[in-house]
User: Which sequence fits this backbone?
């Protein structure tokens, strides 16, 4: 399938300014790492000839303000290294990282600590909650180390505890909470400092599937409420498709594709991505924009209207029962039509 043009279908609008710009980022582990930057050797050749591992190879991307940006790839593809390089928890070997105008690579240690506390906060898989402190005090602790004045700490802590759905549990201790609830405390702690960007490193991979789903929904709800920019690492495609406004797919340290969920599923960049997405029900991810066509000369154009970004599955009932072409319109303009034929091709054509 051919991807609809980016400007047409970018839900956040291409005009949304980036909050984070990464250009030509490399992280090489091993001796004389900087000499390896720019190499075209394969992973095995590099290891054999230099003893180095290029965990991140020439990766460039921008994250837009307010988007959920997912970094996805198999184990060892370089996701954690990439995201840790953003705040220099791992020192990059080469490249540029600019956060809202600030050159992160120029920051000294003191500035880096401030950045990690106030601008780009990381939410880890293990939140490291303090067992002898109750929920509220765990969140307050996060504010304490960020230097928030004492009188403001409890007000803010109560606010974010409410935001993550833990009202009533303020005085509980971590060992009295389920895994999912402990995650919420960690989340509250990160949110309390109100950083511009939240970085999540596989935060839910240790949770059982039901709680995991609950936490994913929680992230979506929180994102709606606070609209914060989030960079989210996962190796789970369904999680990436569910949460991501855009997904960056990595393989062996390299960027393979950046795209919205429907672009990744509808127009995979190569066989690696195609393989990744082969089990995804296309009708659950692709939108009408992908299947609409020009109206035929004699087709009636008085059918119902739907927007181009309606997911095919959600449109199926209306289109199938319309009895005439459904018009796909945007801002009053007719973009194309969809009939049950196009819907059935996706659902029944071996690509549903
Ligand atoms: N400190 C290190 N020294 C040497 N090699 C490293 C180091 N840290 C990571 N690597 C290597 O870099 C590559 C990328 O690792 P990274 O942990 O970033 O991948 P990942 O996609 O996050 O994987 P996972 O999901 O398993 O955490 C791997 O080959 C790994 O072995």
Assistant:
């Amino acid at each position: 399938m051919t991807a609809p043009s980016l400007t047409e279908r970018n839900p956040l609008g291409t005009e949304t300014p980036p909050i984070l710009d990464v250009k030509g980022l490399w992280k090489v582990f091993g001796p004389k790492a900087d000499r390896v930057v720019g190499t075209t050797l394969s992973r095995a050749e590099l290891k054999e000839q230099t003893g180095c591992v290029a965990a991140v190879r020439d990766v460039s991307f921008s994250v837009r303000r307010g988007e959920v940006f997912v970094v996805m790839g198999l184990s060892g593809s370089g996701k954690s290294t990439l995201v840790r390089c953003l705040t220099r928890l791992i020192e990059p070997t080469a490249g540029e990282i600019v956060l809202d105008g600030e050159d992160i690579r120029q920051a000294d240690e003191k500035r880096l600590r401030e950045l990690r506390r106030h601008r780009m906060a990381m939410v880890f898989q293990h939140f490291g909650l303090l067992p002898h402190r109750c929920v509220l005090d765990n969140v307050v602790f996060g504010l304490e180390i960020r230097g928030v004045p004492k009188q403001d700490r409890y007000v803010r802590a109560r606010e974010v505890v409410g935001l993550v759905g833990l009202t009533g549990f303020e005085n509980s201790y971590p060992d009295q909470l389920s895994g999912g609830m402990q995650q919420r405390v960690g989340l509250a702690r990160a949110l309390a400092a109100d950083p511009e960007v939240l970085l999540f490193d596989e935060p839910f991979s240790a949770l059982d599937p039901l709680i995991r789903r609950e936490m994913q929904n929680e992230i979506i709800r929180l994102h709606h409420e606070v609209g914060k920019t989030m960079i989210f690492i996962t190796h789970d495609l369904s999680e990436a498709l569910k949460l991501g406004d855009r997904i960056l797919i990595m393989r062996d340290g390299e960027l393979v594709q950046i795209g919205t969920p429907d672009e990744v599923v509808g127009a995979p960049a190569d066989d690696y991505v195609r393989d990744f997405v082969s089990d995804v029900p296309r009708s659950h991810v692709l939108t009408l924009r992908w299947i609409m066509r020009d109206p035929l000369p004699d087709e009636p154009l008085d059918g119902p209207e739907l927007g181009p970004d309606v997911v095919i599955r959600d449109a199926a009932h209306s289109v199938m029962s319309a009895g005439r072409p459904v018009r796909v319109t945007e801002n009053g303009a007719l973009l194309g039509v969809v009939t049950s034929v196009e819907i059935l091709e996706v659902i029944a054509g071996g690509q549903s």
Notes: The chain has two domains: 64-88+104-280, 283-348. Confidence is low (pLDDT under 50) at residues 5-11.
